[in-house]
Amino acid sequence: MTKVVRIHEPGGVDRLMLEQIEVPPPGPGEARVAHRAIGVNYIDIYHRTGLYKLPALPAVIGVEGAGIVTAVGPDVDEVKVGDRVAYICYPAGAYAEERNLAADRLVPIPDGISFERAAAGINRGITAQYLLNRTIAVEPGDPILVHAAAGGVGLMLCQWAHHIGAVVIGTVGSEAKADLARLNGCQYPIVRTKTDFVKEVRQITGGEGVRVVYDSIGKDTYAGSIDCLRPLGMMVNYGNASGLVEFVNARELTLKGSLFFTHPSLFVYMRKRSDLLASARHFFGLVDAGILKIHVNQTYGLAEAAKAHLDLEGRNTTGSSILVP
């Protein structure tokens, strides 16, 4: 029997149930992974609340983990028993001691990177990789705005963009988070609760605005984010911490500078295994070189999943959070 955290119906953290289930042998194209660490992400909250619907209930939640391959099914040549691997993928099922999943979604963990850092970093690192290199190719000197700059993806975006040579502006929720963002490459942290971030961005950029906004907050920051963009700038709405952006006015995008809007998905960008492996190698290579730091700032037991969700929803976390089975 395997311990898992699953939901039988959407709702609050009281819907997270620690249970035991049988995990069958891996099927064709599948591998079994014994988790050593599990990533906690906002998408887990969306699954729990029903904002993003799961295919069927009851369901184990979680989409990110790292561990050891303990068995493989027929027709698997991507991994072998004993491999150290990490993943970020659908279907959900990571909040578990072990699970089966498609072997072509697993990526190797370099020897110098721990399971904890791999589980905390694979989602954020691959997200930052495609946002900065494929959604829009950020170049040296580009002014950019990163919302939630002290969060998991925010810190990674700030570090990576700074490495590229961009001018990194970020919004945060407190002075302490501003200090953390500054230490991770954000040259201009703005405490959003104290300052009008649109005015600050315009002042920092000499009135020009930024080339791109990376916004994981959503509804509360959308209007201001649009006003921070220069002509032909891009609004990248990749998260919904404050709620969905439910309406985008095409005419407004035209009038404010022929702006671009996108709501990208990692799972679309990484649908090809070749893209997944290339992104993972790029990310882990920069971590191994000491250029990118993975901040594992909160660790919980599997039975503490509810607390992990409450802390993340309450914006009481910085960097990454993991569960340890």
Automatic annotation (TrEMBL):
Keywords: NADP, Oxidoreductase. Residues 11-323 form the Enoyl reductase (ER) domain. Pfam families: ADH_N, ADH_zinc_N. SUPFAM superfamilies: GroES-like, NAD(P)-binding Rossmann-fold domains. InterPro entries: ADH-like_C, ADH-like_N, ER, GroES-like_sf, NAD(P)-bd_dom_sf, QOR-like. SMART domains: PKS_ER. GO terms for cellular component: cytosol. GO terms for molecular function: mRNA 3'-UTR AU-rich region binding; NADPH binding; quinone reductase (NADPH) activity. This is Quinone oxidoreductase.
